[in-house]
Structures are given as C-alpha cells and as structure tokens.
TrEMBL record, chains A, B:
Domain Alcohol dehydrogenase iron-type/glycerol dehydrogenase GldA: residue ranges: 9-174
The protein, known as: NADH-dependent alcohol dehydrogenase
Cofactor(s) for this UniProt protein: Fe cation
GO molecular function, one term: alcohol dehydrogenase (NADP+) activity
Alphabetically ordered keywords of this record: Oxidoreductase
Highest classification ranks of the organism: Bacteria, Pseudomonadati, Pseudomonadota, Gammaproteobacteria, Cellvibrionales
Family note: Belongs to the iron-containing alcohol dehydrogenase family.
PANTHER family, A to Z: ALCOHOL DEHYDROGENASE YQHD
C-alpha cells in the first residue's frame, strides 16, 4: 500500500424525505442561490420540496445549467451572485449542476479571468460554501472536490479540483431519481462503474481493503444497475445505486493505490468531437483498453474476473477474455453500446481523436504512463 | 436501507514515516499536551519521532494512561491542562490512550464533575482539539467520537460519544505496530472483527454496499490477522490490518443498517468482573451469541457463511454450524480462547454476570431488543 492522506468533510444526509433537512443545514442568515438545470426538478416535485424547506430564508435562483456545463452560462451566475451578495450556493441536480456550481463558488472572489482556474490551474484561496441536493447518481461530485467545465466557444472541456469546493453537505434522496429517463440512469451506473475501475484495475499493491471495497461496489452496480432500469421505483435498488455511485468517487477506494484514468482522458475527446454522453465514451473505451492493456493489468484482470464475475476458467487468457466480455455485456445490458460504430462514429475519426490527445499533451496515460498516442490509437481501433 | 446521516471529519495520514507530519498538522502556536501510556513508545522509537517533529513547539507530556483508562488518572491530566493552559491534545498510543484523551478534552471546560459526562450523559458544549498517533490497530477510536472510561474506585466501565471529540487528524504508521506483543495484535484483530460483526450480523435491509464493505473487511482480517502474528514486520500485512480496523468503526459500514452490540455489552461485564481483555470477552461471547440467535440472524448467517467463508453446504443448518465454527476457529487461530473455561471462569460466575447486566439496566440487548437477561444467561452457558 502506498502512503496516503484521506479526508472527506462532506456530511451525507441519505434517504427518502431528507430534502427538508436543508432548513437546518444552511446557516440561518445565509443569502442562498439555488442553481439547477433544465427544469426537470419542477416536474418531479423536488423544486417544491426545496421551496418549502427554504421558507423564511433569503434565496434566489439560477436555472439553465446545461449538461457538460458551459463556462459562459456559469459566468452569468457569478454576476448574479455578486449583484445579490449571495453567500451560500445550493445546487439541485446531477453532476453538471454541482460541477458548475463549484466553479461559481471558486470564481466569485477570483482575481482575474476565472477560466484560468481550469486552463492554467490558477490557484484560488477561497470559495463560497456549497450544500447540494443530488438527483442523479453518477459522478460522485456530491462529495468530492472535482469539477469538469466546458467552454462553449472553443469546445474545450477541462477540470479543476480543490478541497475548497467540497460540498459541506449532500442530500441523497433515492426517490428523486424515480423520474429520470432510462438513459440517464444507465449513464450514471456506467459512469460510477468506470470510476471504480480507474482506481482498481491497475496493478496489485497488496491493498486488500481498497480492493474488496472496489469489488463490492462493482458487484453492487452489476446486480442493481439492470434492476434500476427494470424497476424504476424500487427504493432499495435506487438507494444502492445512489450510495454506490457516491462511494465510487469520494476518494476512499483510491487511497494508497495506483490509478489509471486513461479511459476518461480518451473518452473526453470523444465527447468533445462527437457529442457522445460522457458515460457512453467510457463504455466504448474501457473494454478496448482492458484488451489492449491486458499484459500490464494481468494480475488485476484475473482478480477482477474471479471475484467480481465469479469466473473460474483454468486457462488464464480465457478467463481474462471472459472478464472483458462480461464488462462489455454489463454496459450493453444497461443499453449503452460499447463500440464507436454503435454511435455512428467511423474509423476515419480515430486519427483526429489522437491528434486532440496530442494537442492536449496527453502523451503518457494510465498507471504506468504507458499509453502513448499510438497506444490510444490502437485502443480506439479495438473500439471501432 | 434505513435513512442515515454520515460525516467523518478526521483526516487520515497513513503510512511509514508519516509521524513527522504532525509538525504541519498542529497549529503553530499551540500549547500541546502529549499523552501516552506505560512507556512502550519510548522503546520503539515513536517517542523520539514525536519529539523531533515537535521541535520548536511548546509541548508538555502526561504518561501513565493505563489499559481501560482510569477516570482518576485522566483527572490528573485535566489539572495539568488547566495549569499549563494547554490548547491541543496529542495522544500517542492505542485505544486506551486516545479514549482517555477524549475525556480530558471534554472535561477541561466542563462545569461540574466530569464523571457525569459518562454516568449521566451530561452534555458538554466544547472540547479541546485532538490529533492522534495510533500505535495499536483495534478500536477505531482514532477516527470516531467514542470513548470508554473506567472508574477505578467503583470498577464502573462507561462510555460517551460526541462529534466534538473526533480527532482532527490520525497518523497511522503500520511500522509502529511491529514491536507490539502478539497478544495485543491478536486482541486488535479480534476487536475489529467483532466491531464489524456487530454492524453486519443482524437482519437484511437490502443495504448491499454496507454488506459488501463489511464482508470485505472481515475477509481482510481473516487473511491478514494470522499473518500479522506470523510475520510481525510484514509492512503490507500490518498496513491492511491497521486500515481494516479503522474502517471497521469509523461509522461507514454502520450507516443505514440495524446494529447489534449485545456481544460488547455482555463482554463489558466479563472484563469488569474477571479482568479479561476486552477482545477476549468478545471472542467468548460472539460465537455463543451466534448460536443462540441463529433464528433471528438466519439470513445474515447464511450470507456470512457463503460470502466470507466460501461455505456451500446444501443443508442450511449445517452451513450455519460451519460459519459459527469458522468464526470460533479464527479467534482460536489468533490465540484467543473462545470459552469462559479458557480463562478459568467457571459456570458459577454466570448468575453474577447476569445480575450485573440487570443492575446496568441492560434488559433488552441486540438489534431486536430480544436478548433479555435470561437470554444473556443462556448465551453465557453456551460460552462456558
């Protein structure tokens, strides 16, 4: 096990009916900005619950934060925050709304062009406090310090991270996910699954607790993901998926172990160039990357196949083949195609995608830094 | 899954050589009290590392905190804290030193007799900040708000808990455990194992993540516990046991699930009356309790046997028998006898132990409140 530091200050408030707790969790005299997306929270009753819980408090709202949240949109929110002297941010929604609100929090007191926080990793020394209400289990942003933002003007998709933007609290009410479209549920489960794999499927360092936790989360998603599509109002199933997605990227399973993240980096280019959903790109890249990196990841692939999928082929290569096929099968079962062709993306796009990786200086990806642009090209060919 | 709130503010700093980090973690102008036990930290190099890291800071020391820390001893430390205007507490040791220091932290500004914090659950509104260096993986106290204290005068052993006494940070360096006597290593692994079982072996509520995490920790202790005795300086093994013991009782695996804790309650009487080590009492009580409660715990006993011990008997009663036998076998393998007779305690003690449970108002233990004094008597008979 490698040395590590772990700390996660976010208070989780989990379960049906918990939205009302924001009344106690937000400071009494706060000037609150409720941020949200396209308005689905007005159709599923969440907005009403928020309004009721905020009764007697001073609050404003900012809607229209889009998927892959746009820098340009968020800067409008920053202007509103300054004008109304907002001092507490309450994002209500999925990863995009929460990620976007983290940038709002960091940008408000930033001296200069806030895009530099993303483009130049410009440091910031304060951020507005955030508490969030999660309505789409997927990214883990509700209890971490990460954020991914897109500049619409240039289609650049960049990330930043800081302990200053951890939400102080996160409300997770599984019933808020009942009305989500199947594609978003599928994307969320696939996204969480691949978050776990990025921290697990590398090489062994004898970190048994982290391995067992990762395997437990993977098994939970494999069992509950398809059920969450088939039984949209099964509380226990939605609760398990929601909690698994949070635990997948709150830092815990990644402590003291090597991490990969090449699938994410290659996938980002696919979203930027072809508009695939984030999770769709992961479902395309990961199985191909597992195949391409099977020598480097050999021991963990065997462990993954045996423990997560209960495979017991005596031939190790056959076992690895079966583990990759099972992974692909899980994504397909969630309704998420696992090849470029499944999204109408042809082989002719591959050189352009590799060019973008080079342009973004992503020349040595993965836990060994061994995924060169040439290797990325081969992975994309395998994913064609 | 039941509704829950989870938050754990302790920063974990894990790994070899991390003790020096206290220089950065403790406020620069703090007046620090280093608390410790019988002086083993002066033999294994830990004290030297602490002294070096505190160079240039203002610090004092208080030694002699005993196992099952005495209220009387801790009140001497409180007097020192007041006299020297201490404003930061740095316990260095195992569960007793850290538990004891939590009481010091709470007692300093307490208006009245601090024993009331334990005996009457008297509220306190502030506590001195604590950062700890853990040298004995066992109780989980390094990242929770719990503390167990004994009043020597009356041999009362009582507990208190508060978010105010969570350590701000916990340094976990597995190499500090290399010099521990085998009995303490065994006790620590057994203690952590039973902490997990108290939160896991109840009845199913469909909480798949919590179940998988608990099972993963149990499997880790089963694999690494015996190795930690056989290979005292195997870093990876000691690291896994240390991290598993912390995760066993930092609140995470217990969220949203029913909990038992009857084994602990019955075990406390055994320590108080016969002086058995805490973990020894757990090793005696748990297998007997599993046997006695096998109807109430049936579904979880089957799941435990299948997932944790890989049992596959077609007869379910035989499978449960084997799961209980395997649990007993693990404790024995750790050198910890699992019957009262193994510690020279005869059946004639059982009525007196039950009388103490009644005296302490422990009339309805376990996740169903179904363990009456009569049931406790039967459990102790099974443990004879």
């Amino acid at each position: 096990m490698q040395n590590f530091t772990f700390s996660n200050p976010t208070k989780i408030v989990f379960g049906e009916g918990q939205i009302k707790e924001i009344a106690n969790l937000i400071p009494a005299n706060a000037r609150i900005l409720v941020t949200y997306g396209g308005g689905s929270i007005k159709k599923n009753g969440v907005y009403e619950q928020v309004v009721k819980a905020l009764e007697g408090k001073t609050w404003f709202e900012f809607s229209g934060i889009e998927p892959n949240p746009h820098y340009e949109t968020l800067m409008q929110a920053v202007a509103l925050v300054k004008k109304e002297k907002i001092d507490f941010l309450l994002p209500v929604g999925g990863g995009s709304v929460i990620d976007g609100t983290k940038l709002i929090a960091a940008a408000v007191n930033f001296d200069g062009e806030p895009w530099d926080i993303l483009a130049k990793h410009a440091p910031f020394t304060s951020a507005l406090p955030i508490g969030c209400i999660l309505t789409l289990p997927a990214t883990g942003t509700e209890s971490n310090g990460n954020s991914v933002i897109t500049k619409a003007a240039t289609q650049e998709k960049l990330s930043f991270g800081s302990p200053l933007v951890y939400p102080q609290f996160a409300i997770l009410d599984p019933t808020t996910t009942y009305s989500l479209p199947p594609r978003q549920i599928a994307n969320g489960a696939v996204d969480a699954f691949v978050h776990i794999m990025e921290q697990y499927l590398t090489y062994p360092v004898g970190a048994k607790v982290q391995d067992r936790f990762a395997e437990g989360l993977l098994m939970t998603l494999i069992e509950e993901g398809p059920r969450s599509l088939a039984e949209p109002t099964n509380y226990a199933v939605r609760a398990n998926v929601m909690w698994a997605a949070t635990m997948a990227l709150n830092g815990l399973i990644g402590v003291g172990v090597p991490q990969d993240w090449a699938t994410h980096m290659i996938g980002h280019e696919l979203t930027a160039m072809h508009g695939l959903d984030h999770a769709q790109t992961l479902a395309v890249v990961l199985p191909a990357l597992m195949q391409h990196q099977r020598a480097h990841k050999r021991e963990k692939l065997l462990q993954y196949g045996r423990r997560v999928w209960n495979l017991n082929q005596s031939d190790e290569e056959a076992l690895i083949d079966a583990a990759i096929a099972a992974t692909r099968g899980f994504f397909e079962q969630m309704g998420t195609p696992t090849s470029l062709s499944g999204y109408g993306v042809g082989r002719e796009s591959i050189p352009k995608l590799v060019d973008m990786l080079v342009k973004h200086d992503l020349l040595a990806l993965g836990e060994h830094g061994a995924i060169t642009p040439e290797a990325s090209r081969e992975i994309l060919e395998l994913a064609a």
